[in-house]
Amino acid sequence: MRGSAGCAPVNYMSTDSRRAALELLEAVRTEDAYANVVWPRTLDRWSLSGRDAAFATDLAYGTLRMRGLYDAVIAACSTRPTGEIDPQLLDILRLGTHQILSMRVPDHAAVDSSCGLARALGITDTGRVGFINAVLRKVAQHDLEQWQRICTEHLTGDAAVAVATSHPEWIVRAVREAWSGHREQPVSEDELVTVLAADNIPAKPTIALRGEVVDADLEGTSPARWLPGARVLDTVIPNRSELLRDSRAIVQDEGSQLAVQALLAAAVDPPESAWLDMCAGPGGKAALLADAARREGVGLLAVELHPHRADLVRSSVGTQVPIEIEVADATTRPWGNRFFDRILLDAPCTGLGALRRRPEARWRRQPSDVRELTGLQHALLDTAVASLRRGGVLAYVTCTPHLGETREVIDDALMTREDIVEEDARALLPTLQDLGPGPHVQLWPHLHGTDAMFIAILRRV
After folding, report:
1. Contact at 8 Å (CB) between 304 and 331?
2. Is residue 206 classed as helix, strand or coil in its secondary structure?
């Protein structure tokens, strides 16, 4: 077994932390649950806080993130394919593998606690507990890099990259195509691994400040990379932040903040009277738009299809900022013959740009989702252009680098309509670097430290 000298003093035998992590894995597997929604309730149910909560979070999210590679490792250490292993046992093996390969947990503690976790769940027969023990002891014979080499030695190209970086192969192909376009040249496997590896690095929560916030309120935060109003929560837990509770800040990735910044920076001939947020839930961007609309003295309409997400918009914006919120299908143009000076279309997408925050999404999404979503994206964009006044600007935004949801949607609109032009979004975000050939902006986690947001600015002429 690998040595474990120098390990930090962690409560290695905390069964509750492991039970909580296993509960999240089972909820994602059996209920198609969203980890970021379920996890806070899970921590509360198991009364986890402090270091125990941090340990459980690393264990749960890290296992979800690296599931693809871990399954390959488990398959190499097992006498049966992973598809034939009882799902609950497989989840326990995944948790144990993550502790051995990616956490500072001694091998013996990871193996013993995994067997103990099985017993705590009522799995007492020696055969199944012994199977967990045998597999994890084999896992502990190599470190993470060695297992990456072992599991990919008979693979080539995107298939090898997929296993090494724990991504489905179709996502690897999509990222290769998008990054090649950004670089304007073919991408090597090593470079592609670097791009994808950023999805496996947990991102700290980022907030957008609203109104007047004094320096004393910013304890436990640090400046984000690009915007003065963006802060990174270093030691503050979001649901315990006074700034967030008082609606003086909202949780929002800096990439999303940059998308709003680009829309607001585009020139529009005055006077302006009305702005539109077409797919407003859960409301982070709507809150920033509402703040700007109040300063400029214009009205803001936020449209959201789902009632519960419309409630989130109301909560995010707060009661101090006037905003019109309508629950409706934006493709039907529920606002009638009204025209708008600025429109934000944050279109529903696969979310492949936020895999570092939503680790299970890479296993939930399928190529068929892209085909379904692009139809909706085209329909929303058509409606948006039809509702834009002449001279007005539209920001088409998605949290994905997939060309089918980004560049191809814009190119199709430009080819089929003669009343819109694309402007250089890079010029609207002058502090950003390494933005590629444009005129759109494609952000990258490994390059910009943000989610992989796509931002295109269209003007109706």
Report:
1. no
2. strand
- The rounded distance, in Å, linking the Cα atoms of 154 and 158 is 12
- Residue 63's CB is within 10 A of a number of other CB atoms, namely 25
For residue 402, how many other CB atoms are within 10 A of its CB? 29
- 6-35 per-residue burial string, b: 16 or more CB within 10 A, e: under 16: eeeebebebeebbbbbbbbbebbbeeebeb
| Residue closest to 377 by CA, chosen among 396, 362, 392, 399 | 396
Residue with tokens 């302006």: 272
56 φ/ψ angles, rounded to the nearest 5 degrees: -65, -40
Q: Give the three-class secondary structure for 178.
A: helix
**Dist. CA 356–CA 445, nearest whole Å:** 9
CB atoms within 10 A of CB 239: 10
151 is catalytic: no
Residue listed under structure tokens 């045998």? 134
Q: What length does the chain have?
A: 461
**C-alpha span between 282 and 286 (Å, rounded):** 8
Q: Which residues contact 461 (CB under 8 A, 6 or more apart)?
A: 390, 391, 419, 420, 421
Look at strands 420-423 and 454-460 and give their pairing: antiparallel
The pTM of the full predicted model, rounded to 2 decimals, is 0.93
What mean pLDDT is predicted for residues 142-153?
A: 97
Q: Which residue of the set 77, 151, 349, 399 is catalytic? A: 399
Report yes or no: 340 and 268 within 8 Å, Cβ to Cβ: no
**Average pLDDT, stretch 319-332?**
90
Contacts of 232 (CB under 8 A, 6+ apart): 204, 205, 206, 207, 221, 222, 223, 224
- Residue 451: pLDDT over 70: yes
Q: Which two tokens stand for residue 153?
A: 């030695």
Tokens 């990054």 found at: 179
Flag whether pLDDT at 187 surpasses 80: yes
Cα radius of gyration (the chain): 24
